[in-house]
Amino acid sequence: MKIYQVDSFTKEVFKGNSAAVAIMDGPLSGDLMQKIAMEMNLSETAFVKINEDYCDLRWFTPATEVPLCGHATLASAFALWQGGHWPKDKTIEFKTLSGSLFTSLDSSGLITMDFPANYATTAKGFDKTELENTFGSPIKEVLNYPAELILIFESEQAVFSANPDDTIIAKQAKNGVIVSAMSEGENYDFVSRYFAPNLGIKEDPVTGFMHTILTPYWADKTGKTIFKAFQASTRTGEMQTELKANRVIIKGNAVMVFETDFELPSTSH
Q1: Domains of the chain
Q2: Catalytically annotated residue among 12, 39, 44, 148
Q3: What is the SS3 assignment for 84?
Q4: What are 20-31's pLDDT values in tens digits?
């Protein structure tokens, strides 16, 4: 089985978010996919089954399967095109737990992904004092999305300096805690980070899925529909997002780190 490692949402190796992309020759059990994801030990490993007019796609963290992952979708499209598995001029439809996702290359060479927009609601039943003590900054707004908690800060510096305790973060949401603020510079519109210890990820370097929630939120707050977004992790990452009706268009770059052949156990099929 061919496996690629791709850095997503960056033009430089060692930045953005790494994902492994496994191009499956035949069916694999969910248990084996999980073991391979643990072995790869990246924030996500994507498993792609190529069909005539679409691809099946699943994503696993080292700890669990997840319903949506933007950076591993971008990595999957990039690997399919770069590896010669899919024509570069042909849109890829990925059938996933979150429905059909579409990826294509735009005229400038950016990988374009078309996702459902996700809308957060005002959170209830949280301990704001504990959260403010954890992050060391006043919280402007607290929102919920299934399995996620979203904290909106007054200043981008609160996002940059965040270093929350894993045990406290793990209690707040089934998956993770998203933090965001308006950008105070000219290069970006908003900044964000994502902490997800329950998914086996202390901090995700760059998170496409999160931007399907943040893009509608910031569109509502600013009246804009097109954004330049910066994820302020140690590796950093950037993307362009656009709210189009009930879809979020995410555009980004990717770079190949390596490709290899993965020998499956003889009992895998």
Answers
A1: 2-116+252-261 (3.10.310.10), 121-244 (3.10.310.10)
A2: 44
A3: coil
A4: 999 999 999 999
